[in-house]
Amino acid sequence: SDLMDALKALGKRSTKKEVEDMIWEVDENLDGCVDWEEFHLMFQRNIKDKTGLEPFQLFNVVQFMMYDRTNSGAVSVDETMHMLYARYGKDRLEAEMKALFGDDLKADGDGCLTFTQYLEAVNVRLPKVEPKKKATSRRRRR
């Protein structure tokens, strides 16, 4: 219920199932809760992840909330730069900022992302998984 309330405060309405799935992704001992060890493991795995394959739903919520210093439900360009620098380092910072804010990125720090906009921008860049092709039989007709 705490996570659902936090998501609501950020302007994202989620179903109970969606919130349960976020918790399940990081719940190593399957007790339906995220304890400190699981939280820490999730955070470290995502910070170090270079593949984009780590479960990231809860991480995105946590990271957004950490850098929304004013609790406004939106992060500025400056706040986002800190967030992305922590996650990707100096080498990928500019590319990641452009991916989130597009070509409208201004050097003076103007612009904001709401939580929903942030999730949309992050999810657009997820690795694409190719659907499996159905096997077809190649029998010869006589």
CATH topology of the largest domain: Recoverin, domain 1
Distance between the termini: 64 Å
- Large-scale geometry: globular
Query: In percent, how helical is the residue content?
Result: 40-55%
What's the assembly state of these chains? Answer: single chain
* Strand percentage: under 5%
Task: Describe how the helices and strands are arranged.
Blueprint: H1 2-9, H2 16-26, H3 36-48, H4 57-67, E1 74-76, H5 77-88, H6 90-101, E2 112-114, H7 115-124
Antiparallel strand pairs: 1-2
Protein name: Calmodulin
Domain EF-hand: 14-49
Pfam families: EF-hand_8
Features:
single chain; 142 residues; mainly alpha; Recoverin, domain 1; 2 domains; two-stranded antiparallel ribbon; 2 strands; 4% strand; globular; repeat; calcium ion binding
Note down, in words, how this protein is organized.
InterPro entries: CALM/Myosin/TropC-like, EF-hand-dom_pair, EF_hand_dom. One of its GO terms (cellular component) is myosin II complex. The chain has a two-stranded antiparallel ribbon. It folds into two domains: 54 residues, Recoverin, domain 1 (Orthogonal Bundle), CATH 1.10.238; 58 residues, Recoverin, domain 1 (Orthogonal Bundle), CATH 1.10.238. It is built from seven helices and two strands, in the order ααααβααβα. The chain has 142 residues and is mainly α.
